[in-house]
Amino acid sequence: MSPGTRQDEALSRRALAMLRAAATGRAEMVLSSEPDMFFDGLPCCDQYTAHLLARRGLVAPAHPGRVGQRVRALVTSAGIAALESVRDAA
Predict the structure, then answer these.
(1) Closest CA to 53 of 7, 4, 3
(2) What is the model's pTM?
(3) Is 5 inside any structural domain?
(4) 67-81, pLDDT tens digit by residue?
């Protein structure tokens, strides 16, 4: 986690939208220490948030591969919990 980023900090609407898209199978990520994300085959406009989702463990690659490879992104159990907590709060 980078300095100034708190694990319990609320997710932005954009981060939640990215998680929802990943949950429907529309997201891919590039395998690296700071994975970039793609949605519907297009690069995400907010890679900072993509990195945040990965650092917090909310998304993960569907399978291992080599650095630089693009793979399907999965929402982790922590990501599902984050989505459910927002839904329950609404």
Answers:
(1) 7
(2) 0.86
(3) no
(4) 999 999 999 999 999
